[in-house]
Specification:
Number of strands: 2
Helix content: 55-70%
Bound molecules: zinc ion
Radius of gyration: 26 Å
Largest sheet: 2 strands, antiparallel
Number of domains: 2
Shape: globular
Number of helices: 17
Low-confidence stretches: none
Strand order of the largest sheet: 1-2
Length: 408
């Protein structure tokens, strides 16, 4: 069953899609050549820059917060007006309808790095970035759309698919030209808010399929090519932490820490305040930690294997790491459960009980910090495992180092 579906949904790359090729080739020429020509002869106005900026963020966020995190992954609940905004300005990003985009994206997650992944990075960075769009998608719609039954039931999404080209013409090109008309410069509006913006947003979102599978680290999972990359976030509306996203795709965030750049996450925070989005799905912290520690443990194992560590040392290290991992995870669960209980019940408690709980929380927090510190020390010690060519003498220093770090 699974193998039949796989053979049916692989995108055949045989027939060039001349419409897509023409669009993806001509738009950059008009965007860069045309805008440069226009600026040279007519200058640039503040309204044109604002036209570009507002359209850039509206269309980019409609793709990341809308197409990606809402329609593809259903990571939160979204009001009808906000869905409509995503559908109109997502179409204006000219990256196909929600039905097409999300079906491809769900297959990307399910079959990542294989032939059935529409933008398989193993076929090369350029292919994953743009090459795959240059071929006709000849798959039968009823088969291809097997993975989006929920979206096919949404009348707004079906409406967008039906009127997709019309929305593109109106929202992506006529609207910015009309804004330019306000100051008698429709061509300026069309170039800045239309062509130049389309091309820039195209490549910013294409980077997620190419660069986010090529450069960066893999802190949460090493099963596939998805990577975390802090500098990619600002270029991709906050989708730089792609390794986290592939591991925890039900999470509404990509940048899971408050300081990690994630524009879509911050946009959704505002949408929540405005009552347009709710019920955000978050991965429990202990699960995130577990994934991270498992990856770190595998690194140490690989280092030990490369260093040709003797069996005895191997067992010693594994035992210590396992203890450290359990201790760290327990401390985190203990702290989180207590915090949850405190937030849930504190309004019903007397002042005295609240004070006692605050103390308890502080104690758990210290315990967690301690466990984190010890784990980091242990990983640092492991990273001093000598290079295979320098075994013997150096491995002794390493074991001494390791034995110095206390787990509890
Ligand atoms: Zn995704
Ligand atoms: Zn990906």
């Amino acid at each position: 069953m699974e193998s039949t579906l796989r053979s049916q949904i692989a995108r055949p790359n045989e027939h060039p899609d001349w419409v897509n090729i023409a669009f993806l080739l001509l738009t950059p020429i008009i965007a860069f050549g045309g805008t440069a020509w226009y600026v040279y002869y007519h200058g640039v106005t503040k309204l044109e820059l604002a036209n570009f900026t507002v359209m850039y963020f509206l269309t980019g966020l409609s793709i990341t917060a809308g197409y990606h995190r809402y329609f593809s992954h259903r990571t939160y609940e979204c009001s009808k007006p906000l869905q409509l905004l995503y559908l109109i300005f997502g179409a204006a990003a000219v990256q196909n309808s929600v039905l097409n985009w999300c079906s491809d994206h769900r297959y990307h997650h399910r079959y990542v790095d294989t032939n059935e992944d529409p933008y398989n990075i193993l076929r090369g960075g350029l292919y994953a970035h743009i090459g795959w769009i240059l071929y006709k998608d000849t798959r039968a719609v009823n088969i291809k759309y097997k993975n989006i039954p929920d979206l096919l039931k949404n009348p707004l999404v079906v409406w967008q698919d039906k009127w997709y080209l019309f929305i593109v013409v109106v929202a992506s090109f006529a609207l910015p030209a009309y804004i330019g008309l306000i100051e008698g410069r429709p061509v300026g509006g069309l170039l800045w808010g239309g062509f130049l913006r389309v091309v820039v947003v195209h490549h910013m979102t294409f980077f997620i399929n190419s660069l986010a599978h090529m450069w960066g680290t893999k802190p949460y999972s090493e099963k596939d090519t998805a990577r975390d990359n802090w500098w990619l976030g600002p270029f991709t509306f906050g989708e730089g932490y792609h390794n986290f996203h592939h591991k925890f795709q039900a999470d509404y965030r990509n940048g899971v820490r408050w300081y990690q750049f994630d524009l879509a996450k911050w946009w959704l925070f505002v949408m929540k305040l405005l009552g347009q989005a709710r019920h955000f799905s978050r991965t429990p912290e202990p699960l995130i930690l577990k994934a991270k520690l498992e990856v770190q443990m595998r690194h140490v194992e690989a280092r030990l294997a490369a260093a040709g560590a003797p069996e005895r040392m191997w067992q010693l290290v594994q035992g210590r790491m396992e203890m450290g991992r359990v201790r760290f995870e327990q401390a985190l669960v203990q702290y989180h459960e207590a915090k949850l209980e405190y937030t849930r019940q504190k309004d019903e408690w007397t002042k005295e009980v609240r004070r006692q709980w605050a103390e308890k929380l502080e104690f758990y927090q210290d315990d967690l910090d301690d466990a984190r510190k010890r784990w980091a020390e242990m990983i640092r010690a492991m990273n001093r495992i000598p290079h295979p060519s320098a075994q013997g003498l150096l491995s002794l220093t390493f074991v001494l180092d390791l034995l110095k770090t206390r787990v509890w």
